[in-house]
Amino acid sequence: MENALLVAILAPILGAFTLPLLGMHSAKARNAVAAALLFLSFGASLLLLKPSLSGDIVTVFKPAGFGLDLIFSADALGVFMALAATLIGLIVTFYSFDYLRREANQNEYYFLTVLFLGAMAGLVYSQNLVIIYLFWEISAVVCWRLIGFYREPFMVRRADKAFLITVGGALAMLLGLIILFNEYHSFDLRVLRGMTAPNLAVGLIMAGIFSKSATLPFHTWLPDAGVAPSPVTALLHAAVLVKIGVFVFARLFVGGLVWEPVWDQVLPVVIGISSIVAGGAALVENDLKRIIAYSTVSQLAFIFLGLLMDSRLAVAGGLLYILTHGLAKGGLFLCAGIVEHKLGAKDIRQMGGLARNMPITASAFAFCALSVMGIPPCGGFFSKYMVIAGAVESGKPWLAGVFIAGAFLTVLYLLRLFAKVFLGEPKFPEVKEGTAGMLWAVSVLAGLSLLSGFLIGYPNEFIQIAVGRMVGIE
Q1: What count of other Cβ atoms lies within 10 Å of the Cβ of residue 289?
Q2: What is the mean pLDDT of the chain?
Q3: Whole-angstrom distance, CA of residue 232 vs CA of residue 149
Q4: What is the crossing angle of helices 397-422 and 359-373, to 10°?
Q5: pTM higher than 0.85 for the full model?
Q6: Residue range 363-406, pLDDT digits in tens
Q7: Are 16 and 114 in contact (CB under 8 A)?
Q8: Cα 227 to the chain's mean position, in Å?
Q9: Cystine design at 352: which of 262, 340, 424, 450 (Cβ 3.0–4.6 Å)?
Q10: Are 388 and 460 in contact, with CB atoms under 8 Å apart?
């Protein structure tokens, strides 16, 4: 099983470097290998599922000294995140084959995308803070190049903005990690478990996490990143970048490091404000992808607040929402990509009536939106219910009120978005559906958003084990 763990990490990282060479000779070969690498990583993580559930944790340890030991462990939390990221990444990659067919720089795109997902796998399986930081920074560099994919000057400036904010936060986090090392002389998460983190270290690490996860006040780069191709924005929001911050928070602070009680008061307030402000911004925004981006900022707050509570139910709901939100949000961005691809417009005030000529896209968008809203029987409903019930269970009804207010805003801005884009009189009567490959991708994500509700018991069982055994909430 150690080989499966290494394959899950190394197949996409090393294989990514072959893609530009293949692309110079055959685009079809490059695309096939890109998909195969992600499928191989997904399959390897799938093999690690059973031992992670039984508590037989597969570990690879390579001593290097100076606190830089290579420690990779396939615990339940890591396997869950790896499976979610590679599954969504694989679907997005299939979508990209049609979406980017006529674009330049495709060799670089597939190289960066597969490397991006490989870095995610390396990060979620790592038990060493320095190695986590290394993959964290790789994701930032890749993100910078992908956001500026079209190379237009204003797009490059927005990519630079994302890079400066996320890397600035990463440097703050690095200082926090150094303070931890100075205190406990180890970067090994297994050694640090249960140790009390100094307040300065917690503050610096949270600055890095908030910058990566686009949480107020570091959120402004994420809506601006909508200049990237829609497959890239889907990866940023659904599969990789912003979810890295949530994962590292769970890995470090939920059943891991202990902090002073003051953070139990400060962080929920900051995150709650982030949720409401972002929801309000989405309600008044008119750019299609910026609305969905503000939605991500708001929904990530649901995950953070779930993880912050001293409730096994809330923590499980927060982790489960990583999956259900990822499926639905990926679908929303890919549907938005089809709309923009066909119309050449971004302003929803210029749209309308598209459901008549684009019924598959409209239906997929609707199912994904229902999941993000938390409407049963979609998977998002069960995740949000668990978080809200956990807030009440943990004696924090005011947090449940914040959740409900945020959920109400979510319903309002997504209903407005759907009505503006797909309902009313057609303004583009000649427009047609997207290609078969693009429609397949959005249909799969919409179907999974719905199916995850009917089959919620399976991922929930896995999450409960992850919470109980690996995250440490009893």
Answers
A1: 23
A2: 89
A3: 9
A4: 170
A5: yes
A6: 999 999 999 999 988 888 988 989 999 888 888 888 888 889 99
A7: yes
A8: 18
A9: 424
A10: no
